[in-house]
């Protein structure tokens, strides 16, 4: 009985993955040249290139023009299903990256019916509407819009949220601790303004996250909604017993 032949792409994928594991490659490490890899594993350039492209879509590898193929940087991780509530900056720092923010708009306005319902306030109540472009290591990652009941935090609009954390201001100046929250994750498509801000194309698919963060007395403190580049941010949901998080490539 003849042995089943392994397809060229599968052979190339296994060769690259084994090389990464055996050599314990980490973020930023460079793989051998295309010629060397083809000679090492006796595979065609077309099969190798297809394997590299596939692993790039999985955020394992990245190709740098004129430089070679490298291990891709790990993306910040947002963990759902935990007791703790962390903001964007905390999640990014915990993943070993540097967060930054640019304020797109910051104003006090009357909340619409949807926002009022989320914050359990009257529609006539004023809210802080804070829209920020969030960066990871200098690259645009997320457009986040937060809504806070102004009656709970008078004067909050005077803060510079390009430098200050909303969570920190609410805790340190107004005495509120965000203890837990609920969120929903889905897929949406970018409009032209969002695409320009995130350096993507109009109509591209992205994560859409929305949720409410609560204080100790279960009062809604913040309602937020975000559109997030899926190639620069990862969501992990923990189920059952606590576990450690490790990077998973395949």
Automatic annotation (TrEMBL):
The regions listed as transmembrane in this protein's record are none
Gene3D superfamilies with a match to the protein in the record: Chorismate lyase-like, Winged helix-like DNA-binding domain superfamily/Winged helix DNA-binding domain
Which GO molecular function annotations are given, in alphabetical order? Answer: DNA binding; DNA-binding transcription factor activity
InterPro entries, A to Z: Bact_HTH_transcr_reg, Chorismate_lyase_/UTRA_dom_sf, Tscrpt_reg_HTH_GntR, UTRA, WH-like_DNA-bd_sf, WH_DNA-bd_sf
**GO BP field:** negative regulation of DNA-templated transcription
Keywords on record: DNA-binding, Transcription, Transcription regulation
Keyword Magnesium listed? The answer is: no
Pfam families tied to this protein: GntR, UTRA
UniProt KW DNA-binding keyword: yes
User: Which parts of the sequence belong to the HTH gntR-type domain?
Assistant: 6-74
The protein in question is named UbiC transcription regulator-associated domain protein
**Protein's organism:** Lancefieldella rimae (strain ATCC 49626 / DSM 7090 / CCUG 31168 / NBRC 15546 / VPI D140H-11A)
């Amino acid at each position: 009985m003849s042995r089943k032949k392994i397809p060229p792409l599968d052979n190339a994928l296994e060769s690259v993955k084994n090389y990464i594991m055996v050599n314990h490659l980490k973020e930023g490490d460079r793989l051998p040249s295309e010629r060397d890899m083809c000679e090492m594993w006796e595979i065609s350039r077309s099969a190798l290139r297809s394997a590299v492209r596939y692993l790039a879509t999985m955020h394992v590898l990245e190709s740098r023009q004129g430089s070679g193929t490298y291990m891709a940087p790990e993306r910040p991780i947002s963990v759902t299903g935990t007791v703790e509530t962390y903001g964007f900056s905390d999640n990014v720092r915990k993943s070993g990256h540097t967060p930054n923010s640019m304020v797109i708009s910051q104003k006090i306005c009357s909340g619409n019916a949807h926002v009022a319902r989320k914050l359990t306030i009257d529609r006539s109540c004023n809210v802080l509407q804070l829209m920020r472009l969030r960066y990871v290591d200098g690259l645009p990652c997320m457009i986040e819009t937060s809504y806070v009941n102004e009656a709970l935090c008078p004067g909050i609009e005077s803060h510079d949220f390009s430098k200050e954390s909303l969570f920190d201001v609410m805790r340190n100046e107004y005495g509120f601790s965000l203890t837990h929250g609920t969120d929903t994750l889905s897929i949406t498509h970018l409009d032209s303004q969002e695409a320009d801000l995130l350096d993507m194309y109009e109509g591209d698919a992205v994560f859409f996250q929305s949720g409410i963060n609560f204080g100790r007395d279960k009062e809604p403190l913040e309602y937020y909604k975000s559109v997030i580049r899926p190639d620069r941010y990862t969501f992990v949901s923990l189920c059952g017993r606590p576990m450690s998080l490790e990077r998973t490539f395949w």
